[in-house]
Amino acid sequence: MVAACSAHAPPVVPPAQPAQPPPQAFLNRGRSCREAAVGLERATRGVRPPESSIARVIDQRCRDDDWPLTAADCFAKIAGEDELSHCAGMLPDGARRAVLDVIAGGGGRAAIAVAKLRLSTLQVGVGACDRFVTAVATMLGCEQMPVDARVELGNATAELWDLPTTGLSDDAQQRMSDVCGSSLAELQAQATTAGCTL
After folding, report:
1. Residue 114: exposure state from Cβ atoms within 10 A (0-12, 13-18, ≥19)
2. What angle do CA 169, 158, 142 make, to 5 degrees?
3. For residues 131 and 25, what is the distance between their CA atoms, to the nearest angstrom?
4. What stretches of the chain adopt beta strand conformation (E)?
5. Maximum CA pair distance of the chain?
6. How many helices (H) and strands (E) are present in the chain, helices listed first?
7. Least crowded by CB within 10 Å, which of 72, 90, 122, 167?
8. pLDDT tens sequence across 2-36
9. Closest C-alpha to 111, from 44, 174, 37
10. pLDDT digits (tens, 9 = 90+) for 125-179
């Protein structure tokens, strides 16, 4: 009789475990990414079309690319587009390119701001080439030159001269210096024609 009763006893169900809160690091990252997105939205407002917003996309990029908390904190406190270079320098290359692409997606002044940013972090290591890069960055502010032409000039320069130059022979460095010197002379002539000064 005891055996028959025990066969029909309901199974023992362990008590439900309380839901575990998300790790503190995850909470910090989510808050930091939201704050970074708001900071970047605020800092780039002057170079984007008024109706555009980048906050949601930047928040997601921050989470997907796992931004360092120091970089997210820097963007959260950013006051204006002039500080973009400092904060962007804290990101790994791929994450930096992704965030710059988001900002440049607004076209026009946003694309010029991003081209300037790319040039500001570019160090060729050859004197004449670094002077040329600086002159191109200055030329991007020439309002007499069409926006699309300035964006193309800035991006082409950043892509062309973002290459390793350490360990080059003296002959190779001299050739680079010659090319950059003639490019600078052409750019100065172009600036004069447009009515701008370098």
Report:
1. buried
2. 125
3. 44
4. none
5. 108
6. 10, 0
7. 167
8. 444 445 555 555 555 555 544 444 445 567 999 99
9. 44
10. 899 999 999 999 999 999 999 989 999 999 899 888 877 777 788 999 999 999 9
